[in-house]
Design a protein that fits this description.
The chain is mainly α and 394 residues long. 82% of the residues lie in helices and 0% in strands. Helix 2 packs antiparallel against helix 6.
Length: 394
C-alpha cells in the first residue's frame, strides 16, 4: 500500500537493537495517538446521554481538545530543553491518563473541559515528539514515516469498536477510558526503556530568523488553506458519530462503523496521494482535493438516503486524506528558509479546529445538528476558493 524504496528498506535494516526498540515502541505509541484523536468524538454521544450535556458544551469539548494540542505544540520544544526529552515526553504523555479518568468519574462541565484539554496536551506532545524522534532516528526515512501513519490510522479505526465493546459487552463505556489509561501507562514505560539523546530535538534546515515570512503572499494563502481544512477535518472527526445518531437515527454501532469507514478511506486516500504526489504539482493537487471535499460536504449535509450517505462518507475520507500533507509540502520551501515559519503556521492554522467545532455546537443547539454541520460545508467552499487563489500564485 505504501511507497517503499529499496534504499528505505536497507536503511531500516541498519538500525541497531536500541534503535529498533525505539521504532517498535513508537509504532505502539502511534496506535495510541490514533485512539486519542478519535476518542473525543466517540465519547461525545455517551456524554450527551449520561451527563445530559447540550450541543454547545459538546462543541466546546472538541474545541478544548484542539486548544490542548495547540498549547503543547507551542511549548513542547521548550519543555524538552528544560526537563530533557525523555522526562518531558513521559510527563506529557501521562496527561492522557488524567484526561480520560476524570471524564469517566465526573460529568461536571468544568471537569469535562479540563479532561479534554489534558487529552489534547497529550496528543500535542506525543505527536510532536514521536514524529521528530522517528524522523531523526531514521533520517527522514519514507518507509518509517509511512508506517507510523499507518499505525495511527489503525488506532483511529479501532477506537469506535473499543468503546462499543466497552459499552455493549462490558456494560459501561468507562471501561474503555480505564483500558486506554492502562495502555498509555504501557506507552510511558516503553518510553522509559528507550535509549535516545535526552537533549533537544533536531531543528532541520533553518536559514533565517524573524517573522518576515508573513509578508509572503504564498505563506498567508497556504496558512488560510490549512486553517479552513484543519477546521473541516476536526469537525468531521469530532461530530461524525453524533451526526449519524441524531440526524439519521442510526444505532451507535452503525455510527461507529461509519467513523471507522471514514478512517479506512483516509488511509487508502493517503496511499493514492503518495502515488500521484510526484506526478502533479502540489498546488494542483490541493485544488482537486478541495473540489472533492466541497462536493462531498455538500452531499453530506443534504437530505440524501442513508445508503448514499455511506458512499459520501467514503468519498469525503478519500479527498480529505492528502490535504494536510499536501498543503505543508506546497509551503515547504518557506519552512526550510525561515526559522519560525512552521511553528507559526501550525499554531495559527490550529485555531480552525478550535473555532469550527464550537461554532457547530452553538448553531446545533439553536437550529439542530443538520444546520450545525453546514459550518464545515461552508468552510469547504472557502477552502476551494483559497485553493484556486493558491494555484494562481504558482
Amino acid at each position: 500500500m505504501f511507497l517503499i524504496s529499496r534504499t528505505d528498506g536497507e536503511a531500516l535494516k541498519n538500525l541497531n537493537r536500541d534503535e529498533r526498540f525505539i521504532l517498535i515502541g513508537e509504532s505502539y505509541i502511534f496506535v495510541l495517538l490514533g485512539i486519542y484523536t478519535l476518542m473525543v468524538g466517540t465519547l461525545i454521544p455517551f456524554f450527551r446521554t449520561e451527563y445530559g450535556i447540550n450541543y454547545e458544551l459538546s462543541g466546546f469539548l472538541v474545541s478544548a481538545n484542539s486548544i490542548g494540542v495547540i498549547a503543547m505544540s507551542l511549548i513542547a520544544s521548550y519543555t524538552a530543553i528544560l526537563f530533557g526529552l525523555k522526562r518531558a515526553y513521559m510527563l506529557q504523555h501521562a496527561f492522557v491518563i488524567i484526561g480520560f479518568v476524570v471524564v469517566a468519574v465526573s460529568g461536571s462541565p468544568v471537569v469535562l473541559l479540563l479532561g479534554m484539554v489534558f487529552n489534547g496536551l497529550a496528543r500535542g506532545s506525543t505527536g510532536n515528539y514521536s514524529n521528530q524522534i522517528v524522523n531523526d532516528l531514521t533520517k527522514s526515512n519514507s518507509r518509517a514515516m509511512n508506517l507510523m501513519g499507518a499505525f495511527f490510522a489503525v488506532g483511529a479505526c479501532l477506537t469506535p469498536f473499543i468503546v462499543l465493546f466497552s459499552s455493549d459487552t462490558l456494560g459501561n463505556w468507562r471501561y474503555a477510558n480505564y483500558g486506554l489509561s492502562a495502555a498509555a501507562a504501557v506507552g510511558i514505560f516503553l518510553t522509559f526503556r528507550m535509549r535516545f539523546d535526552n537533549g533537544r530535538l533536531g531543528t532541520g534546515d533553518i536559514k533565517r530568523g524573524g517573522i518576515s515570512f508573513f509578508k509572503l503572499k504564498k505563506y498567508r494563502v497556504a496558512l488560510a488553506a490549512l486553517f479552513f481544512y484543519f477546521g473541516i477535518e476536526i469537525s468531521i472527526i469530532g461530530w461524525l458519530i453524533t451526526f449519524f445518531i441524531e440526524t439519521r437515527n442510526t444505532t451507535p454501532q452503525f455510527a461507529s462503523t461509519m467513523a471507522t469507514l471514514l478512517w479506512v478511506s483516509i488511509l487508502v486516500g493517503r496511499a493514492v496521494c503518495s502515488l500521484i504526489g510526484s506526478r502533479i504539482a502540489s498546488s494542483k493537487l490541493i485544488l482537486w482535493l478541495s473540489i472533492g471535499i466541497t462536493v462531498f460536504m455538500a452531499l453530506f449535509v443534504s437530505n440524501i438516503s442513508l445508503t448514499l450517505l455511506i458512499g459520501v462518507t467514503i468519498g469525503l475520507g478519500l479527498f480529505m486524506s492528502g490535504a494536510y500533507c499536501t498543503i505543508l509540502a506546497d509551503a515547504g520551501h518557506i519552512f526550510s528558509e525561515y526559522k519560525l515559519a512552521f511553528g507559526y503556521f501550525i499554531t495559527l492554522a490550529g485555531l480552525g479546529p478550535v473555532v469550527m467545532p464550537a461554532l457547530i455546537g452553538v448553531i446545533s443547539e439553536r437550529h439542530g445538528m443538520q444546520a450545525g454541520m453546514l459550518v464545515p460545508a461552508v468552510a469547504s467552499v472557502v477552502f476551494l476558493v483559497i485553493s484556486v487563489w493558491n494555484l494562481k500564485l504558482d
